[in-house]
Design a protein that fits this description.
Helix content: 40-55%
CATH class of one domain: Mainly Beta
Radius of gyration: 24 Å
Structural class: alpha+beta
Oligomer: single chain
CATH architecture of one domain: Beta Barrel
Mean pLDDT: 96
Number of strands: 11
Number of helices: 19
CATH topology of one domain: Butyryl-CoA Dehydrogenase, subunit A, domain 2
């Protein structure tokens, strides 16, 4: 006997052939405000292609397979020779072709594009990264490392290093590509980089390195930047030099370091992270020998921005999946997305996503401007980067968990993308500096006067807004100024317990001012929801704001 009861999960089909770019109206509105019209005309078709690819069933399957079939370390060849080769599943290699082939790195170093679109290419590259990372977070780390190595060589390398390495680090062709890495962390130090003990011994016009590195992501990269202490150099970060260590020597043999094992990680499993012992590896100096850590800080800050983009990608994917699923499912006699509590949950998820999206894309724009000589924007980048990194990382973990709960049991099984989002998100508060480290870094930036640019920018954006929300944000901005002024009379131990709340609220004031200044109804709705979540929980619930956030944030243009 058969039943007439329709045993099916969804009452309506989900989005057919989704496109992460087309179905993100906030992103489509935001980008034209940050790049020139010619740059946007050039960029939009590429984002459309990446949006379609990243949302496709094929690329999602590749990411799932690469996650489940993690890289394997093969230490020896059949004759017993040590080779330390990493074997990847073909799915990962295909993802590499999509990522690097899109030009998300290449566009930033292309002389022709630089001439055509000056001051727009960080935003362009990160926009491609943002769409790609919604499906594949693990590979976003090697992309970040490769971009970072190219950036440091461009900033601090000599002419020969620039000619030799930048074109290959920025290659679109996977076979021509030289991938980058940063070997920084050591067992005894962790975040305390000044405790690093890896030695650099001069050998003619080059150096030989000796030591151990404990967390080395993209561990089989061909070009590795590494901090080491030259013999006779002082302790702490001031004594560290920056060196470029190639995986392979000119004769084709492996350089003098070993991959001891690969980490068995909770998330970002598609990408290999290993432990390395360095025993006489040949390396070349990059930049001034006594400024290694200051130079590496440029790569750290770029990595933190990549981390923030990856975080917001996870937030967006979680919000997208939950919204799209709940539109298609019926519960208790009506569409699940029609239940008031569900709509409130989704509204808050989208409000956080919108604020974070504005923050990271504005930060990429500020990096573009800093790279073209703006001291004010350089101060904004220095001040905002640590705050944006740690807040978006925490947000990604929350959003991935919230998305699973909204979808329910079907979001908890590994057939869904949702568990991978949560596992991948957990590394983001750890990579490139934990929350406490970054709060202290924010204070260091403020101690150098960078806070003035941020306070002024918040005020300038608030000046373009009006109404009671702008007044509330103005009160918050004034509190952040007063609190920082009070810190000046306190000891570091007295400041530390208050520092995170100050940093949280300083960034919140900036984000809210940014949203209120756009004049867009969805942005304003997001600002009001965030004021209710973070400042005034007794603020009235506005149904029109919930409708704008739930119904106006996932969908293609009419």
């Amino acid at each position: 006997m058969t039943s007439d009861t329709p045993f099916r999960v969804l009452a309506r089909p989900r989005a057919q052939s989704p496109n992460f770019y087309r179905q993100d109206p906030v992103l489509r509105r935001l980008l034209p405000t940050l790049v020139s019209q010619p740059a946007h005309d050039w960029l939009a078709p590429q984002l459309d292609r990446m949006g379609a690819a990243a949302a496709s069933a094929h690329v999602n399957r590749l990411s799932d397979v690469a996650d489940k079939q993690s890289p394997v370390l093969r230490r020896y060849d059949p004759l017993g020779n040590r080779i330390d080769a990493i074997d990847y599943h073909p799915a990962y290699r295909e993802l590499e072709e999509l990522a690097y082939g899109s030009g998300m790195i290449a566009c930033k170093y292309d002389p022709e594009l630089r001439a055509r679109f000056p001051g727009d290419l960080q935003v362009a590259g990160f926009a491609l990264t943002f769409l790609f990372a919604q499906t594949e977070c693990g590979l976003s780390c090697p992309v970040c490392m490769t971009d970072g190595v190219a950036r440091l060589i461009e900033l601090f390398g000599d002419d020969a290093q620039k000619r030799t390495y930048i074109p290959r680090l920025a290659a679109r062709d996977r076979d021509a590509l030289v991938r980058g890495a940063m070997f920084l962390t050591e067992k005894q130090g962790g975040s305390d980089v000044g405790a690093n003990a890896t030695r650099a011994v001069r050998d003619g016009d080059r150096f030989r390195l000796y030591g151990e590195k404990w967390f080395c992501s993209n561990v089989d990269a061909e070009a590795i930047l590494i901090l080491a202490r030259p013999d006779g150099a002082p302790g702490g970060t001031r004594g560290l030099g920056l060196f470029l260590m190639l995986r392979d020597l000119p004769d084709g043999t492996r350089n003098g370091y070993r991959i001891e094992r690969l980490k068995d990680k909770l998330g970002v499993r598609s990408m290999p992270t290993g432990e390395v012992v360095i025993d006489g590896a040949v390396a070349e100096q990059v930049g001034a020998l006594d400024r290694g850590f200051k130079q590496m800080a440029e790569m750290l800050n770029l990595s933190r921005l990549y981390n923030a983009f990856c975080s917001v990608s996870i937030v967006r994917r979680a919000a997208f999946e939950a919204t799209d699923y709940l539109r298609a499912r019926d519960t208790f006699g009506k569409p699940a997305i029609g239940h008031p509590l569900v709509r409130e949950n989704l509204a808050d998820l989208h409000a956080e996503e919108i604020a974070a999206k504005h923050a990271v894309f504005h930060l990429a724009d500020q990096l573009d401007r800093a790279d073209t000589g703006s001291e004010r924007d350089a101060h904004l980048v220095r001040m905002l980067t640590p705050m944006v990194k740690y807040t978006t990382a925490k947000l990604a973990v929350w959003a991935a968990s919230e998305g699973i709960e909204l979808v329910g049991g079907n979001g908890y099984i590994e057939d869904s993308v949702m568990p991978r989002l949560l596992r991948d998100a957990q590394v983001l508060p750890v990579w490139e500096g934990t929350t406490n480290i970054l709060v202290l870094d924010t204070l260091r930036a403020a101690s150098k006067g960078c806070h003035t640019a941020l306070f002024d920018e918040t005020d300038a954006r608030l000046a373009r807004a009006s109404g009671p929300e702008a007044e509330r944000v103005g009160d918050l901005a004034r509190w952040t100024r007063a609190e920082l002024a009070e810190f000046a009379g306190l000891s570091p131990d007295q400041v530390a317990p208050r520092a995170k709340r100050w940093a949280d609220r300083t960034l919140l004031a900036y984000e809210l001012a940014t949203l209120l200044a756009t004049g867009d109804a969805v942005d304003a709705a997001a600002a009001r929801r965030l004021i209710r979540r973070h400042i005034d929980p007794d603020a009235p619930v506005r149904s029109e704001d919930i409708d704008a956030l739930v119904d106006g944030t996932v969908g293609e243009p009419a």
